[in-house]
Amino acid sequence: MPALPNPAAAPPRWHWRTLLWAPHRLAFALACLLLIGSSLWWAQVQLTRMGWLPGWLSLAQDFHPSLVHGTLMTFGFMPLFFVGFLYTAGPKWLALPGPTAQQIAPGLLLQALGWLGWLVGAQTAPALALGSAALAGLGMGLNLWGFCALLRRSRVPDQVHARLIALAWMIGLCSLAGLLLALALDHAALARAFLQTGLWGFVVVVFVTVAHRMIPFFTSSALPMVSIWRPQWVLVFLLFAVGLQVCSVWLQWLQWDLKVWGTLSSFWLLVTGLVVLGLAFVWGLVQSLRIRLLAMLHIGFLWLGLAFLIDSIGHFWMLISDERPWTLGAMHAITMGFMGSLLMAMVTRVSCGHGGRTLVADDWVWALFWLLQLATVLRVVADLAEPRFMMHLTLAAALLWLLAVLPWALRLLRWYGRPRLDGRPG
């Protein structure tokens, strides 16, 4: 492995070469850029829909904006954050030296450039969008290949979490390929089915797997009175609920009668939601509230249980009242509440710890985190509201999301281009 540059010789100010000092620097920096771009674009879409921005700002859409948005939020910045985390924590899990930022840079750059091309092409030229997303998929494949190489070399007995993440990554690649093929053949409904498969089978599985491994570990490290308790049956239980969601996606696409299936799966989701809420307390939710960075993890995990409950109760309410299910509300409780909160907590923790900073969520991060919680609540409520209020609540949620992630991501970008505060390499 090539030696890392000496931080003592580094320029004291921000410099792009500093991004190559550690895998998480480059991966997280590119992820932050995509997160900013995706969030700004979606806020612009919502403002234009409401007539608050001039119509000329809204280019002709070759794909439906919600499909472009969902694809970016699932396959865009999330996998880049995954790479940064996996090549920081993964080598420790597997007791192996990890790759350098230079070694994983080709895959990361393909992903970042590919998704920027997707965003531009989706509004101007479908061929550009599909070709760019295919390049991003190639970048995902390169990073998966590198992680699988670590798995093959590792002799650590416990590889369950790492192998589950690799399997989820494969599902994500297959889902992305299916989505692009469906769009090329002009099958929007099939494309959405592949998109939801990628969300549940890839992104949610990675978050659930990492939460199962890391939340008890972080909690017991900060609160010694809370022991590490993470039996494998808990992970299997959660993944089974995720698998039910994937099955529901495809049964719905096949237009099967979902009354019996929906009732049974909703009952299981109800049980799973209650188990997750109970698990949150077992893992030290109440005790964690004294430590902000830890509380962010636990509050994010709480959203997972709430999302399952919202989905389940919404289905039972539909059976009673014949109203539409609360599918979008439950999905945003997962994506914005569960994944958004854990993302902010995990990335802040890694960035502080590997930047020579104290492992704390300062007042700035803590305030942004609660803005994110408010955005999540408004987006969940929007799905339950009457149509005349839904657009206003959706716009408010999009703007609050932007207000939460924009300063957070810009601050991290400033950190990644500068040396560690303690002068150590990395």
Description:
- There is one protein chain.
- The protein has a single domain (12-416), classed as Cytochrome C Oxidase, Chain A.
- The protein is built from 13 helices and no strands.
- The protein has helices at 23-49, 65-94, 101-124, 126-153, 160-184, 188-222, 232-253, 259-282, 285-288, 292-321, 327-353, 363-384, 387-416.
- Helix 1 (23-49) runs antiparallel to helix 13 (387-416), helix 3 (101-124) runs antiparallel to helix 4 and helix 7 (232-253) packs antiparallel against helix 8 (259-282).
- It is globular, with a radius of gyration of 21 Å.
Q: Structural class, judged by helices and strands? A: mainly alpha
Number of strands: 0
Radius of gyration: 21 Å
Specify the number of helices.
13
Gross morphology is globular
